[in-house]
Design brief:
Radius of gyration of chain A: 20 Å
Shape of chain A: elongated
CATH class of the largest domain in chain A: Alpha Beta
GO cellular component, one term (chains A, B): cytosol
Organism (chains A, B): Micromonospora matsumotoense
Strand order of the largest sheet of chain A: 3-4-2-5
Helix content of chain A: 25-40%
Keywords (chains A, B): DNA-binding, Transcription, Transcription regulation
CATH topology of the largest domain in chain A: Alpha-Beta Plaits
Number of helices of chain A: 5
CATH architecture of the largest domain in chain A: 2-Layer Sandwich
Number of strands of chain A: 5
Oligomer: homodimer
CATH superfamily of the largest domain in chain A: Lrp/AsnC effector binding domain/regulation of amino acid metabolism (RAM) domain
Distance between the termini of chain A: 13 Å
Protein name (chains A, B): Transcriptional regulator, AsnC family
Domain HTH asnC-type (chains A, B): 1-62
Largest interface: A-B, 61 and 61 residues
Chain lengths: 152, 152
DNA sequence: CACCCTCCGTGGACGCGATCGACCGGAGCC
DNA sequence: GGCTCCGGTCGATCGCGTCCACGGAGGGTG
């Protein structure tokens, strides 16, 4: 991870569809060199995926909710997690410090679907209680932040 | 937005670097036709961007926090928002229903940086209080969910 | 019913990009 | 000094992106 790798990561975070030739121009290397570097970033786990970012409303997911989960003292955390993983509406899942073990970001089409999701979550073995907040609007999301070189 | 458009969106959400030729094979059209459709999805706002998804630890952002913000009754929401927007650590910003007007997802390198961020947030005019939860681990994030055709 | 217009696709052509292999130069080590 | 390894450039080949001309389906109109 030198300065050129950081530039490449930053360029690809801004636009994942840049060609290798274009990346090469931006960082001042040849296209094959860039190709090899990006390949190593991918296989080294630095770049996990390339994703198109989609307007959720356009694909029928107009309702965003953030849901805190308090675990049952008797439950098995891994089982709970596995159950969450089966629910496609849950786009993100963080294991948190604090009373609420998990924080979930879920997206559904309607409030009715959200209700059903919350019911399913509440019924999940190991879940003691849920607390749901509805996002009225998303101001921005997953904004890439500039990479600063490791303070050495 | 017909079935082919939905397939294209789904394919690109899974891998934004697929070539037009590959997309064309997957959906059974020619490459120019796919090119045009994808172009319309982009300019129509359905596809907002293409982003490389990066392992945050690899770029020195090992600490993820979720921060609820309670607004001052006297403050101007737009000004508060603008202040948040200036802070690159805030990757996502949702305007919420409930006591906490905003929920922020922030990523920083160290707990010390998180402390500084919280101090800056607390001092922001219009912010009455903050409540921070630290993500011990991210189980998954921004998982694309399968697109279901609008129930017509 | 014939006609035309529009939309959306195909096929062909051409230039550029992706990618492979051969080669090369500097750093580190005997 | 010379070997080896790493990471780069260069050149060639093949496939892809992209532009353009053409064509067929569908709908509105005289």
């Amino acid at each position: 991870m030198d300065a050129i790798d950081r530039s490449l990561v930053e360029l690809l975070r801004g636009n994942a569809r840049l060609s290798y030739a274009e990346l090469a121009r931006q960082v001042g290397l040849s296209a094959p060199a860039v190709h090899e570097r990006v390949g190593k970033l991918e296989s080294g786990g630095v770049i996990r995926a390339y994703r198109a970012e989609v307007e959720p409303e356009a694909i029928g997911l107009g309702v965003t909710a953030l849901i805190g989960i308090v675990e049952d003292s008797g439950g098995d955390t891994d089982d709970v997690l596995e159950t969450f993983r089966q629910m496609p509406e849950i786009e993100s899942c963080y294991f948190m410090a604090g009373v609420e073990s998990f924080l979930l970001k879920a997206r559904v089409g309607t409030i009715a679907e959200l209700e059903q999701l919350i019911v399913r979550l509440s019924r999940t073995p190991g879940v003691a209680s849920t607390r749901t907040g509805i996002a009225l609007s998303t101001k921005w999301e997953n904004r890439p932040q500039p990479i600063e070189p490791p303070a050495s």
